[in-house]
Amino acid sequence: MTQRLASDLLAEAERALADAGIGQPRREARWLLAHALGLEPAGLLGLGRHAPVEADAFVQLVRRRSARVPLAYLTGRQGFWTLDLAVSDATLIPRADSETLIEALLQARQDRGQVRRILDLGTGTGCLLLAALAEYPQAWGVGMDLSEAAARLASRNAAGNALADRSAFLCGDWADAVGLPGGGFDVVLSNPPYIPHDDIATLMPEVAVHEPMQALDGGDDGLAAYRLLMPILARLLAPAGLAVLEIGIGQATDVSRLGTEAGLATVAVRADLGGVDRAVLLTRTS
């Protein structure tokens, strides 16, 4: 093992990350050092800049981050809403933009006893379902994902956030999702793949190279998943149920049209903190 001064390691890491085009290289260097030492980032304050630390693991993390491996994949953790989630390269990394769906749901269903049955299609880490369950304490939910590794990770996240007793995670295709006796789900959440295929190569390397392609690629126009999803929603929603879907830039009109063609009505479109339309809310028309 090689020991180095923490101050020297951080300075070298900051330069390497900046040269690699990483935004906020100083902050990321500190996060990586804390992770390598098994500390929370605030724990570095008590360590002292001139403390000798074991360098090898940290240097390897900096090399991987300089190669544009996402920070969350290196630390294995990501915050979302009120949750602390495990992440892996089997899933998209939860993003603040997706919290717009939870905000929209809370505004549309303010009575916390009104939501009892929730379905999350393409659950990934389970972030949407688990955030909704945390806000609706009388609800239970099911998350589905094509990836068995994602479904297993979501199940672990449910346990880690004390929500395992109100959730179940299944590996399967959306078309395999089954309805419920008594009228269907009160809420269906989904963050489907919506990036047009030819646009994926233009994304930052953290996304284009490292995040799972099946969770990104929305086909030629970015709408392929919605064409599959809308008839499923019409079948799975309860009569007064609500679907809350994440969308990409400029997709609100097309997604609403696809919903109309499947017997769904758009009741709201919600923008994220950047002012981009990010969530479409739909209900059954009959």
Automatic annotation (TrEMBL):
The gene is prmC. InterPro entries: DNA_methylase_N6_adenine_CS, HemK-like, N5-glutamine_MTase, PrmC_N, RF_methyltr_PrmC, SAM-dependent_MTases_sf, Small_mtfrase_dom. Methylates the class 1 translation termination release factors RF1/PrfA and RF2/PrfB on the glutamine residue of the universally conserved GGQ motif. Keywords: Methyltransferase, S-adenosyl-L-methionine, Transferase. GO terms for biological process: methylation. This is Release factor glutamine methyltransferase. One of its GO terms (molecular function) is nucleic acid binding. It comes from Lichenicola cladoniae. It is an enzyme of class 2 (transferase).
